[in-house]
Design goal:
With 112 residues, the protein is mainly beta. Helix content is 0%, strand content 50%. It contains no helices and ten strands. The strands form two sheets. A six-stranded antiparallel sheet has the order 1-2-3-10-5-8, with no helix packed on it. Strands 4-9-6-7 form a four-stranded antiparallel sheet, with no helix packed on it. A hairpin with a 3-residue loop joins strand 2 and strand 3. The protein starts with 16 loop residues before the first strand and ends with a strand.
Length: 112
């Protein structure tokens, strides 16, 4: 078995990176994939993401409701817990939490 393989990667050991009024943690990252979590407190907004030029991005809302804003079109979409959203490459977006509950979502990108 590959010596880099682990059965469990935990966000508990990942570095917290400030991201707007929240933070993100990259839990797994290789030259091919990046996965982690984004945490946004109630009534707060995560940072701006211009979109990844080399990868689509998939989010899964673990808890709370994510309001995903698309600055180029001015549109927004609420994504409740238990749902996925796919962000096409190079699509600028922000994530806000307009509720009284903390927001946690995971992200995954497969790089070209």
């Amino acid at each position: 078995m590959n010596e880099d393989y682990k059965k469990c990667y935990s966000p508990a050991s990942a570095v917290k990176n400030e991201f707007g009024e929240g933070y993100y943690q990259v839990v797994i990252e290789t030259d091919q994939i990046s996965c982690g979590e984004i945490h946004v407190p109630p009534h707060a907004k995560a940072g701006y993401d211009a979109g990844h030029q080399d990868a689509d991005e998939v989010f899964f809302v673990v808890s709370g409701t994510a309001t995903v804003h698309f600055p180029n079109s001015g549109e927004a979409e609420d994504v409740p817990a238990g749902c996925y959203i796919m962000m096409p490459r190079s699509t600028p977006h922000t994530v806000a939490n307009n509720t009284d509950q903390a927001l946690t979502l995971t992200f995954s990108c497969v790089k070209k």
